[in-house]
Amino acid sequence: MIVPIAWSRGAVAVLDQRLLPSRRRLLRCRRVEDLARAIEGLAVRGAPLIGIAAAYGMALGVSRSDPASLERDFQRSRERLSRTRPTAVNLFWALGLMERAFRRAAARGPGPVRRALLAEARSIHRQDALTCAAIGRHGARLLARGARVLTHCNAGMLATGGIGTALGIVYTAHRQGRIAMVYADETRPLLQGSRLTAWELRQGGVPVTVICDNMAGALMARGGVDAVLVGADRIAADGDCANKTGSYGLAVLARAHRIPFYVAAPSSTIDLDARTGGDIPIEQRRGDEIIRIRGTRIAPCGIACFNPSFDVVPHRLVTAIITEHGVIERPNRRKILHVKNLIKYVKVNC
Ligand code: MRU
């Protein structure tokens, strides 16, 4: 099991994913600012893991507070962390849970608040592990024996508090002997597919082949893909799914080749405030990420770049969304609302 984040001796320790697969280095974030930069720089990444990191960050934010500074430290930490990455709704969801825990303990002073916030962050972390396991169980049933799966970016152990969402399904199906091959899109510009997905699947003994993003169509055309399986950063109320840029293109290709396109995500990724995918804020990142690879410039100096970190797959292209509560086939507003209502009453079945 790869553990990408932990609370350790009053700091948040994160596995620096920028250096993988060449180096394994732990970053110790002692201040909220350290953690915020780690999230912005993608040392820690993946929607559920960003939520977990933010939760630990809130605990960090009050670790030196006295009664006079407690409320101010909490609000400053919240404000800083909420400015890190705009698309993954798990970040804002986790901050909301931390605010609730803070309010419940605030009158009792800094000590009880610190304990309450750390307990809440640990619970978000633990719950995510159970959520991934449940997604894995539900999703594995969708794959036939000998399945060849194409995935994009990294929605695995490196992106969550457990075995992953899309890759949680892969690991579960692999244990059941159903996986013949996983094709990992390299995922330009930051290569989460070739650096992270290929690395973690290999560690887990899952057969994996890396392809460039622009090879997916050719692979599908020659009958090499049985299912596309990706994660999500935010799912709108109508079932439109925002995920790593390139997911939309894959969904269009999958539809053209009559291949199922599955999205795996915790139900906390569903944002009912976003009516459609058009309401989901899409993070725009620096063009430098496109024109430099490991510091070397690969395009003319000063060239214009377009670098949206995510795109939106319209729900009509999504065969099913898999959450910890089960499979939502052909997602639409009615089905999404039904699942969201269910969550108010049901905890993850573990
Ligand atoms: O920019 P990243 O690496 O944070 O993007 C990650 C993704 O797009 C993942 O597919 C998504 O967050 C789901 S992770 C379970």
Write the layout of secondary structure elements.
Elements: E1 5-8, E2 11-15, E3 26-29, H1 32-40, H2 47-61, H3 70-82, H4 89-105, H5 110-140, E4 147-151, H6 166-175, E5 179-185, H7 192-203, E6 208-211, H8 216-221, E7 227-230, E8 234-236, E9 241-244, H9 247-256, E10 261-264, E11 270-271, H10 288-291, E12 292-293, E13 296-297, E14 310-313, E15 320-323, E16 326-329, H11 333-343
Parallel strand pairs: 4-5, 4-7, 5-6, 7-10, 8-11, 10-15
Antiparallel strand pairs: 1-2, 2-3, 8-9, 9-14, 12-13, 15-16
The structure holds 5-S-methyl-1-O-phosphono-5-thio-D-ribulose.
What does this structure look like?
The chain has 350 residues and is an alpha/beta fold. The chain folds into two domains: 5-132, Four Helix Bundle (Hemerythrin (Met), subunit A) (Up-down Bundle), CATH 1.20.120.420; 144-342, Translation initiation factor eif-2b, domain 2 (Rossmann fold, 3-Layer(aba) Sandwich), CATH 3.40.50. 39% of the residues lie in helices and 18% in strands. The chain contains eleven helices and 16 strands. The protein has helices at residues 32-40, 47-61, 70-82, 89-105, 110-140, 166-175, 192-203, 216-221, 247-256, 288-291, 333-343, and strands at 5-8, 11-15, 26-29, 147-151, 179-185, 208-211, 227-230, 234-236, 241-244, 261-264, 270-271, 292-293, 296-297, 310-313, 320-323, 326-329. The strands form four sheets. The chain has a seven-stranded mixed β-sheet with strand order 6-5-4-7-10-15-16, with helices on both faces. Strands 11-8-9-14 form a four-stranded mixed β-sheet, with helices on one face. Strand 4 (147-151), helix 6 and strand 5 (179-185) form a beta-alpha-beta unit. The structure holds 5-S-methyl-1-O-phosphono-5-thio-D-ribulose (MRU).
